[in-house]
Design a protein that fits this description.
The complex is a heterodimer. Chain A is an alpha/beta fold. Chain A folds into two domains: about 20-105 and about 190-205 and about 220-344, 3-Layer(aba) Sandwich (Rossmann fold); about 115-190, no CATH class. Helices cover about 30% and strands about 20% of the residues of chain A. In chain A, the strands form two sheets. Chain A has an eight-stranded mixed sheet, with helices on both faces. In chain A, helix 4 packs parallel to helix 7 and helix 5 packs across helix 7 (about 175-185). The longest helix of chain A has 18 residues, at about 205-220. Chain A is globular. The two termini of chain A are about 15 Å apart. The relative contact order of chain A is 0.15. By secondary structure, chain B is an all-alpha fold. Chain B has a single domain, classed as Orthogonal Bundle (MetI-like fold), CATH 1.10.3720. Chain B contains 13 helices and no strands. Chain B has helices spanning about 1-30, 35-40, 45-55, 60-75, 85-120, 125-140, 145-160, 175-210, 210-220, 225-250, 255-260, 265-275, 280-305. In chain B, about 35% of the residues are buried. Classes of the chains: A alpha/beta, B mainly alpha. The interface of A and B includes residues 110 and 122 of A.
Chain lengths: ~350, ~300
């Protein structure tokens, strides 16, 4: 039983020498009238260049907030972000807004869940892509427009010339999300943050968008953090998967290990409650209970109250990610105590 | 877009026709007519009948209406029963006096209101927000004739730096005329300033809460460019209210005009009401209604130019 706590600077991917993104002890708190909401509670991970990390979790698990913290777009004033976010040698959390603006767009870009609300309704799609290019590449508007057209072509929007002149409300949901992807890629970022980009779309369109994103990711060699609550989507696109719950990583490792041989009771429950393959007639196991109240988190494991395997010590706290395989980590006291054969 | 403008113009026709009928009917419904004012009560009934005949008041109501409307369509606003002057020239002079106040008052009120509103939204909850909200609420709720009197008391009576009333001598220099504008313009700008600043604050807050603002930050846009996005989104609702406010200013404020002894359109209508001067009253109201409708068409078109979702 050799316990090994995850070192934040230990590369997750064996091929990466220095990680593109290194997040240490990331914590996000919101001050609200009801009290302090602890949305993210000590997240650690490294992301190699070109690696795709899928963050899987229910709503309120802190996955979107983590992305926004990396992007620096959480509402100021009532938000406290602590820890360290190192991107390509830049410490983002201590970086002044003005310098951050030079990274946002050309180095790190983001796509949002609902492209209808993430695009400005009174500007054409072309203007919104071109303004990003003008801002970061210092070219004139006509050059930027020509490039915007190329990007619309790249995300396979038909008749891109005409689409440049279209307003967001004149496009379908799938087209809008393609336009949003074109916008995000327009300055060739090294890191793409995708916040549930397929959740608001029809299932058939979802697949198209996933395939497009995967293809573009390979073509451009960019790293992606893909946040989703959909296990199928996560397995489709990710190299590595992290499972979040109560603002923490419960399990983190190569996608096939985490999804096919889950080690944490929560991941296990999540997989059992997911519809897949030939399950007709079978009972779907749901996880009993509700996600924890982030304004009133328990001291120990946030999942303990719903966990069928919990022991009294689980409520005591101090549960860190520990290695359960090559690059595979799990934050479960019993897994740590009893070894890998927990669910075998 | 041209079809949109054409349709808006077409809509204006029934609106104005309806307005003309309502104006004419209301004036008819008011008891008494001009002869009650023009001749003493002890005068023989025949005198009144001759006068009624002369002014066409003995004709059936619908005939009177169509004669008035026909003349209006030919650009003839009628002749004042009381002064025997063409209504057109009286209205032109009163309206130009009103415009002299309304345009700078609108400009001042709208600009100040927009700036205060945007700043209040950006500093939501801070002391700046509270201060500006206080100013805006005071601007809307203080009776502006009272503010006018207070301003006169301070700047004309006590400090003696600005004229108390009037437009200044006809042959006065430009500076003198401008000095006469200052107090009434400030007084008139208070309500538009308050209304616009409250509205702009609310719309900017609503826009700031939207996802596309986060998305703009996420693509590293400059603050100035983000402000441009906010302004363009806030513009359509703000323009709508600005159009209404400017319309109210054109109607002239009888109270403010009285305080500053300013011969504007409010005073003209007020006088016409007391004199039962039907041609002046009805033509003035109809012209003002026409301007009001025109401003709103202009606002509709501007809104549609800014926000494509409104081009229906």
């Amino acid at each position: 039983m050799n316990r090994q706590t995850l070192q934040a600077d230990a590369p997750l991917s064996a091929t990466a020498a220095t990680p593109l993104l290194s997040v240490k002890d990331l914590a996000v708190r919101f001050a609200t009238r009801e009290g302090v909401v602890e949305a993210v509670n000590g997240v650690n991970f490294n992301l190699a260049r070109g690696e795709v990390l899928g963050i899987l979790g229910e709503s309120g698990s802190g996955k979107s907030v983590s992305l926004r913290a990396i992007m620096g777009i959480l509402p100021r004033g009532r938000t406290t972000v602590t820890g360290s976010i190192n991107f390509d040698g830049h410490e983002l959390l201590s970086m002044p807004e003005k310098e951050l603006d030079r990274l946002r767009g050309p180095e790190i870009a983001m796509i949002f869940q609902e492209p209808m609300t993430a695009l400005d309704p009174v500007f054409t799609v072309g203007e919104q892509i071109a303004e990003t290019i003008v801002r970061h590449e210092g070219v004139d508007w006509s050059t930027a427009n020509a490039r915007a057209k190329n990007f619309l072509e790249m995300v396979r929007i038909p008749s891109p010339e005409r689409r440049l002149q279209a307003y967001p409300h004149e496009m379908s949901g799938g087209m809008r999300q393609r336009a949003m992807i074109a916008l995000a890629l327009s300055c060739k970022p090294k890191l793409l943050l995708a916040d549930e980009p397929t959740t608001a779309l029809d299932v058939t369109v979802q697949i198209q968008i996933i395939l497009l994103l995967r293809e573009l990711q390979r073509e451009l060699g960019m790293a992606v953090i893909f946040v989703t609550h959909d296990v199928g989507v996560a397995s489709e696109i990710s190299d590595a998967v992290a499972v979040m719950y109560g603002g923490r990583y419960m399990e983190h490792g190569p996608a096939e290990n985490v999804l096919l041989a889950p080690n944490h009771p929560y991941t296990h429950g999540l997989m059992n409650s997911t519809v897949h393959g030939s399950m007709r007639g079978q009972r779907l196991d749901t996880i009993p209970g509700l996600p924890p109240d982030l304004a009133n988190l328990p001291k120990g494991c946030p999942f303990a109250a719903r966990c069928g395997h919990a022991i009294p010590e689980c409520e005591q706290g101090g549960i860190a990610l520990s290695a359960v395989g090559k690059n595979h980590f799990s934050a479960c006291l019993r897994v740590e105590k009893e070894g890998r054969s927990f669910f075998a | 877009m041209w079809r949109f403008i054409g349709r808006r113009l077409l809509y204006a026709v029934p609106i104005l026709l309806g307005v003309s009928i309502i104006i004419f009917a209301l004036v008819q419904l008011a008891p008494g007519d001009v002869t009650d004012i023009l001749i003493p009560p002890e005068a023989p009934k025949e005198v009144a009948d001759i006068l009624r005949h002369k002014f066409g008041l003995d004709r059936p109501v619908y005939e009177q209406y169509f004669i008035w409307l026909g003349n209006l369509l030919q650009g003839d606003l009628g002749v004042s029963i009381f002064t025997n002057q063409p209504v057109g020239s009286e209205l032109a002079s009163a309206l130009s006096n009103t415009l002299m106040l309304a345009i700078p008052a609108a400009f001042l009120g709208f600009t100040l209101g927009a700036v205060l509103g945007v700043l209040a939204a950006f500093f939501r909850g801070g002391w700046l927000d509270k201060l500006f909200s206080g100013i805006a609420i005071a601007g809307v709720s203080l009776p502006h004739y009272w503010v006018g009197i207070v301003l006169v008391a301070i700047f004309a009576v006590t400090l003696n730096v600005l004229p108390a009333q009037g437009m200044g001598p006809e042959d006065g220099d430009v500076w003198d005329s401008l000095r006469h504008l200052i107090l009434p313009v400030i007084t008139l700008s208070l309500i538009p300033m308050g209304v616009i600043s409250r509205l702009v604050r609310a719309s900017v807050l609503e826009i700031l809460s939207q996802e596309f603002i986060s998305a703009l930050s996420a693509k590293g846009m400059a603050r100035r460019r983000i402000l441009f996005h906010i302004v363009k989104n806030a513009a359509p609702p703000t323009l709508a209210v600005m159009g209404l406010q400017f319309g109210y200013l054109l109607g002239g404020s009888i109270l403010v005009e009285t305080v500053y002894n300013w011969p504007g359109s409010g005073g003209l209508m007020n006088l016409a009401i007391f004199r039962r001067d039907v041609p002046v009253l009805s033509s003035t109201i109809l012209v003002l209604a026409g301007i009001f409708v025109a401003i709103n068409i202009l606002v509709d078109v501007l809104q549609a130019l800014i926000d494509p979702r409104l081009r229906r």
